[in-house]
Amino acid sequence: MQQWAQAKSGFNKSITGRLRRRSVQAVWGVFGSGVLLVGCAESVQNTQVVKPSLAPSNLAVTSTAVVYGQAPRAVPEAARAAVVSAREAMQRRQWEALPGYAEQARDDHELGGYPMYWYLRQLLNDATQPVPTQQIYAFLQQNKNPYLENRLKSDWILASAKQGDFDTVRRIGTVASRTSEVDCAILQARFLGTGQVSAAQALAVFKPGNACWSMLGQLTGANVITHEHLEPLLRDAVEYDSKDSARRYAALAFSPAGLSSYDALMANPMGWLATQSGSATGELQQLRALAFSRLARQDRDGGAAFLEAQGNTLLNERNRQWAWTQFGLVAALNLEARADGWYRKAGEGFRLSDYNHAWRTRMALRQPTIDWKWVEQTIRMMGADQQKEPVWVYWYGRARAGQGDNSGAASAWQSILYDHGFYGQLATEALGRKIVVPPQPAEPSAAEINKIMTHEGLQRAIALFRLGWRPEAVGEWNFAIRGMNDRELMAAAEWALREQVYDRTINTSMLTKNDFNFRQRYLAPFEGRVSQQARAVGVDPAWVYGLIRQESRFVTVARSSVGAAGLMQVMPGTAQLVARKLGLSYSAANAHDFDTNTLLGTSYLKMILDDLNGSEVLATAGYNAGPNRAKRWRDASDHSLEGAIFAETIPFTETRLYVKYVISNATWYRAAFTGRPQSIVEQLGQVRP
């Protein structure tokens, strides 16, 4: 262990010492072959292109087989400059300039396909323009980049589906790497062609989106998707407060009169329910159940009293049971102890969403005296797949142990030791063991790394990373590693590490099935500078590394959708606040500066830690969701909670997952840095109000 930690410390220094930043002119290229048929827009349109058959031989699905080529070779400077200029033109929406740049970029065997791809993608996205079929044919015939081929076919499928041209969608066929939208368009096209699409197939790919809503509407109109299929989707959307999706499901599920009632009950559930009396069946029964779900969000006290008084009259047994879980869920999300009582009142034997099943178990765990038999019952009520998730296997084991069945508990915990995350670590300790870094596989050899560096897709991805074009680079990289075995994945991760593309190092190494390279998965870059800053402000470096790994994957230029920036994803307002407290001047221009970002991030972490009585669990939650929320969640209980129970019952899904990831990460980093066995249970501690 200690040797592994020492090797880890020295490894990053040796790699960094060998790295050098390359200018655009010095970027090495991928193996070359073929010339892309591109030119100015007019010349492409006037080129006599023989329209090929859209048979599978011409538009075949890109294989997932790993293909290797030649060692990297230089790219002509002028060709690469044309690609760079094309991207700048694309960002300025100067679409007419792209075909010209595509012609100039034709000798860039790595990235020369991008200018024309950007141009064709824009034409496909422009609903006022016809689909540029001939230009697409030309591109697909000459393009040597399977990733761009896959992307263009996907764009073509969606554009054709949007225009109602499902004949073309069928002729294009499937693509290698698809989104749910593309899957939905393909299924709708298949249904219109052969009628051979089942409800199960459609629901397996459906996610709210234009193409999927179109497919769902088509299949509902044809009675392939029925009210029985729509009911759980509608209920789950109302339960999750996804109003837009719920309204669209309702429009498919209900008659015009029923939809009018739905709109009324969503606006004023108690007012609408007050107009109801006697028993009901069918659509009206469903509407009443939804009204109680909506009422739970608006008035838990009055709504629960009304359900107690009128539920037997207005609802059938299963809808009454479901209605009680709606009050249980809203109370659970507010961490109210009474949620457990409402869940118990609901009983069992009816359909419940995975989300609500989980909260029923979580609230059973938050009780002052845990009823382990009830915890076990709530887990057994889950579907088979949900029961197999490490989180519920672990708590099932705890429930068996709590009832004296140590053998059953050990069997459950043993079954999730494959999971190196939060619950695998907890299971390890529950079995009486400490957490140590597992035996490491043989490191990627020079031959394996040299071979992976001949992979044309990875060469393109590295070229894009060197240009700083992360969106394109990540797409190329992820497409390239499909189908790789463990040794290839570790070699690819090693190449990413040498290029300082740390997020791809981690994410690629995390895909291995049997060989687990923790030096890659839990890398600690920046030559001790993070640890030095952490110690300077008085926080554990392992915790800081665990947090950065989750926040940014060590991408210094990372920026979230809400404006959090840099390694430690510091929010602009937080940065200003901490800078003032430290007596520093701060400018948003410095948000991604390593020293500035780590100083502000670690200082803020220390402030939260001190404010929350030294609890890393609370401080981690506070770093993600704000310290005041962490305090409210802590004070919602009138008794001490195990740190693991507190973490599992954080109401915000993002924060709940974040805390578990960070604490798990920190445990591995401590094991690596110290060379000693670790305890995640001790790290979690107790959370006291």
UniProtKB/TrEMBL annotation:
Residues 532-638 form the Transglycosylase SLT domain. Residues 452-511 form the Lytic transglycosylase superhelical linker domain. InterPro entries: Lysozyme-like_dom_sf (IPR023346), Lytic_TGlycoase_superhlx_L_sf (IPR037061), Lytic_TGlycosylase_superhlx_L (IPR012289), Lytic_TGlycosylase_superhlx_U (IPR008939), Transglycosylase_SLT_dom_1 (IPR008258). The keyword Signal applies. Keywords: Signal. GO terms for molecular function: hydrolase activity, hydrolyzing O-glycosyl compounds. CDD domains: Slt70-like. GO terms for cellular component: periplasmic space. Pfam families: SLT (PF01464), SLT_L (PF14718). Belongs to the transglycosylase Slt family. PANTHER family: SOLUBLE LYTIC MUREIN TRANSGLYCOSYLASE, SOLUBLE LYTIC MUREIN TRANSGLYCOSYLASE-RELATED. This is Putative transglycosylase. It comes from Advenella mimigardefordensis (strain DSM 17166 / LMG 22922 / DPN7).
